Amino acid sequence: MKVFVRFVLMLTVISILSLLLGISLVEMGVPPVYYLYVVVIVLIVSLFSAGSILEPLEELRDAFQSVVSGEIRTVTPKSTDEFGELAKAFNWMVEELRKEKESLEESERRFRSVVEEMDGWLFELDSHYCITFASPNFRDKFGDVQGKPVRDVLEHFPVEKLESGKFEYEIIKDGKITPVEVIVKKDGGTYRCLARDISTRRKIERQLAFFREILEHSVDAIVILDVDSRITVWNRGAEMMFGYTAEEAVGKPLNFLMPKERWQQCTENFKRAVVEGHVKDIEAPRIRKDGEMIIVDQTLTSIHDSNGEVIGFVAIMRDITRRKKAEIELKNTCEELERRTREILEVQKELQQLASIVENSNDAIYSVNLEGKITSWNRTAERLFGWRRDEALGMPASKLLPEEIKGETEFIIRRIREGESGLRFETRRLRKDGVVIDVEVTVSPLLNEMGELSGISIITRDISEKRQAEREAERRMLKYEVERGRVYFADSFDTAVDVINDLIRCGYNGRVISRRYPEVLGIEEGNHLMLSAKKRDGTLEPDPDRIYREILNMPGWKNAVLLDIDYLLIKRNFEEVYELIQRLKDVFFVLNKGILVVCTESELLGEREMKLLKMECCAIKSKKIEMPAEIYEILRFVYAQNRVGERPSIKDVMTNFGITRNTAKKRVAYLAERGLIKMIKDGRMKVLEVTEEGREVMRVA
Predict the structure, then answer these.
(1) Residue 326 included in any domain
(2) Fewest beta carbons within 10 Å, which of 333, 364, 441, 558?
(3) What pTM was computed for the model?
(4) pLDDT-based confidence at 115, cuts 50/70/90?
(5) Rounded distance, CA 650 to CA 173, Å?
(6) Which whole-number Å values give the CA distances from 605 to 494, 512, 547, in the listed order?
(7) DSSP assignment of 246-284
(8) CATH number, position 238
């Protein structure tokens, strides 16, 4: 029942009772019952009010206090009046509060979870910079910090930077430095701070800076492209390689560096990079800004985002133009090496054959190093000289030389060093048993792998019998007592010319070096060199070194040289001329070069100089022959012809000596009468032959 209805009913009852009592009081006066009535009425009204109004309000008050204290409590509606509606409204409010509380608890739980899992430390400071709140991970690291000044917890914390809103700071804890970034949010007098560890970020920043430096300073061209293969990054290496600046290259497709015929291949490479992730070892031509074509080794790699989608490409190109050229050269070199290897194998076979030839040669072959020590020795050398191989190796080559030519090895090495490519001469060698033999020697230089002189090779042939026969023949045939390997002095030009002509007739290679004309000397022009300062054919400068070189380069060892020093003494001083003669004496003696005749009729020389020349040279002596000289010349001519298997006729004598037939017959008859030659009929012609008695005369002569 509604409260309003209760009050109406209560007032109606009270009014009726009051009316009845009032009537009674009027009739009866005011008895004690009236007071009792009043008390009953008040009591009834109080009980009714307490039961109907105060009890629901008290229940609502208790429930409200429970809600305020945090306990969720509802009331039970006991009526359908206003108090019942009020109870329902209170219960709805409590239900909403419960939901809000649960939502707040869930939010708090989530917030706490976020704070605990947050990458950083969360703390709050009051206006005095004391810590009023700290996240669990902050407390785990620094302990109980509630209420402590922040600088007691974080040493040298820059409180002056709190107003900036963001700054970096280094936390020092247990000797370890941790860089952090502090983000500050000010709310009134409170500073909410979030400190994040930026060690990893700094490391990444250093790596990025390192990679940036690599990108900028790499000698390789590093080009980053978008998905349309257009250039977005162009490093300094690319600028140096292709000549385009970054401003010129960025935005262009990569194929602008390629010949048109390579564009399709470029597209295929990008497709492969998308499918396979990268395409490497692409050797392809590229065009520089100046039009030069170069070869690059390119690696193309696709770039993906976090979802695996292709967002671009990176192309790394290295200029291998020189390498490719080097590879081609290397290939050619390898082919050349193979060819040379085949040649070396062939040469090795030849060397083996040559080694066999050398070892079994009839000539003694040995080699000498620059110190004059023997380094090789073949079998014939063992037989010829008497030393075994093990005895000869390392032995001084001078032990093979007679005492008078001990300096031959040094002389030969010096000549080889001066550029002489090969020497051939007759000389003497000393056997182990002390016997001196005549030999013919051929000397060649030995070069090392650097082309430098390392020694000499010597081929020696025993010519003792030949030289003995030649000496015997020369002794018989020559008009003068001269010997090969000697230098002679003549103070008469006629005598000197006669000696040279005599040697030429006996098979020597004649050479006259003089200022006089050949027709005056009575010699052939081909055997003459005119001393003259003017250079022309058939002349020789009056220079001691040039004269020495000219004589030294004469081939063979049967050389007859006449050196007229009159003009040389005018152009040069005596000491230079004297030194030249000494040098030539060494050459003719050591190399057995032939016979040198030094001649002068000059009055420029004093007695001392003339004496020095005669001491340095041998004197010329003519042979004593008991017949006219012209007769002896014919006998010698016939003897020389017979030695080579020829038998001259009277006509040959006429032609050779330039005499008439009658004169030739008379001189031949003179020799025939004395039994020195005889005439033999050879067909229709008579020829001449020396008899045994004639040979004896030549031997004695």
Answers:
(1) no
(2) 333
(3) 0.41
(4) low
(5) 134
(6) 19, 21, 20
(7) HHHHTTSBGGGGS-GGGHHHHHHHHHHHHHHSEEEEEEE
(8) 3.30.450.20
Q: How many domains does the chain have?
A: 6
Please check whether residues 129 and 97 belong to one and the same domain.
no
Burial code of 72-109, b = ≥16 C-beta within 10 A, e = fewer? eebbebeeebebbeebeebbeebeeeeeeeeeeeeeee
Domain boundary among 422, 438, 466: 466
Beta strands in 392-498 (DSSP E): 423-430, 436-447, 453-462, 486-490
For 658-691, give one letter per residue: b (16+ CB within 10 A) or e: ebeeeebeebbebbbeeebbeeeeeeeeebbbbe
Pairwise CA distance, residues 120 & 122, whole Å:
7
Check whether residue 520 and residue 533 sit in a common domain: yes
**Whether residue 512 is found in the same domain as residue 436:** no
Residue 680 lies in a domain: yes
- Per the structure, the complete domain to which residue 246 belongs is given by 218-319
89 or 545, which is more confident: 545
Predicted confidence (pLDDT) per residue in 13-56, tens digit: 666 666 565 556 555 555 556 556 655 665 566 555 555 555 66
User: Best-predicted range by mean pLDDT among 213-217, 416-420, 422-426, 684-688?
Assistant: 684-688
Strand partners, 310: 304
